[in-house]
Amino acid sequence: MSATLFTGGRLLDPTRDELLDGFEVLVVDGRIAEVSDRPIHDVAAQRIDLRGKTLMPGLIDCHVHVVSTTVDGWANTLAPSSLVALKAGRIMETILQRGFTTVRDCCGADLGLVMAIEQGVVDGPRLIISGKGLTQTGGHCDQRVRTDDRTQVMEERLGNLGRIVDGVDNCRLAAREELRKGAKFIKIMANGGVSSPTDPIHSIQYSREEIRAIVDEAENAGTYVSAHLYTDKAIRRAVECGVHSLEHCNLIEPETARMAAEAGCIAVPTLVAYEGLALEGERFGLSKEASAKIETVRSAGLRSLTIMQEAGLPMAFGSDLLGELQKYHSMEFEILARALPNAEIIRSATLVGAKLCRMEGEVGVIQPGAAADLLVVDGDPYADIACLAHDGAHMPAIMSRGRFVKNSLH
């Protein structure tokens, strides 16, 4: 039995807006065994004196693509799957070192990567996967330019984030296949995209009948559908069809945000993705046409945060960075802080993320029975959200499932 006792620090409970003094936390065999405002006596436990530092739950990112090893989608698809898998391992190790102990992969990662983490082959965050994203012909995950007449698009490659599926029956079958292969939710492309070559931002993708069929299959399996969405029209339509997780939402309007909140949806803004693409997208192979799309969604990002907050639409933390741009991961905290209170940002990366991952009480909290995913942070994130940024520079210790993956407290 392995045990660790954290003492002498301040506890960050994301259900409150202040740090709590005088609490001790005991971890036994990968789980939180006890949280107490009185001294915990366990002579066998390794004692960690936090000396005024902050102990908080591990962070959750609800929109990543760990197999996106380069901004150029075709180059990523063409790379051998073994190479992509090895690079994905490096990406996941880096994500964990930033304090993200759980991530939801919004298309691309497969069950093999989940198993690699669970078996300790690589150090990485807990991985919640959707399998391949479902896209219509000419949709957001269709990487073929207009002059490309290929019908085989190597959907079996690990580096290909999606699969092309058209028609109600085929959509049902594809959803069932992804669920059989280990997907915990289904991801669809229901709107135009920035990095895809033939679909303008305003394009509406998948028929209502196709979306409802996919939602039906997800619900039959006890899960939900997540959709790539930008425009207000596309978001409203997706909500009407039963989509639960609304990715991006840059161009959402107040009435639709209120409707989504009433339907019990959760939004996942990913503003750092557009900052990264604006800064370096063309250098890494993004076309000029795609770069022109970026400003449409980038300029509306902060407004969308305010709209969703005022509508009471819960938001989970997301990043959505591709390939080389994943180095900007922690910048999302800085961007969110331009429009949202720090306490809400913290909830988005803990409590709301746990709810979207269907892991409430397991992650995103410090309470008995929860997984021991814990961060030791210099400073008070409620006062300065930058404590959670800068690639984990302000996190002297990171514990994942009861094991230190970083510890400079000695």
Instruction: Report the principal-axis shape.
Output: globular
Class computed from helices, strands and strand pairing: alpha/beta
Strand order in the largest sheet: 3-2-7-17-18-19
Secondary structure: helix percent: 25-40%
| Quantity of strands, as a count | 19
Under CATH at level 1, the class of the largest domain stands as Alpha Beta
Nearest-integer average pLDDT:
94
Q: How much is the radius of gyration in Å?
A: 21 Å
- CATH-defined fold name of the largest domain: TIM Barrel
- CATH 2nd-level architecture of the largest domain: Alpha-Beta Barrel
CATH superfamily of the largest domain: Metal-dependent hydrolases
Secondary structure elements and pairings:
Elements: E1 3-7, E2 10-12, E3 19-21, E4 24-28, E5 31-36, E6 46-49, E7 54-57, E8 59-64, H1 73-78, H2 81-97, E9 100-105, H3 111-118, E10 126-129, E11 133-135, E12 162-164, H4 168-180, E13 186-189, H5 208-220, E14 225-231, H6 232-240, E15 245-251, H7 254-262, E16 266-268, H8 271-280, H9 288-298, H10 301-311, H11 331-336, H12 342-348, H13 351-356, E17 374-377, E18 397-400, E19 403-407
Parallel strand pairs: 1-6, 2-7, 8-9, 9-10, 11-12, 13-14, 14-15, 15-16
Antiparallel strand pairs: 1-4, 2-3, 4-5, 7-17, 17-18, 18-19
Protein name: Imidazolonepropionase-like amidohydrolase
Domain Amidohydrolase-related: 54-392
Pfam families: Amidohydro_1
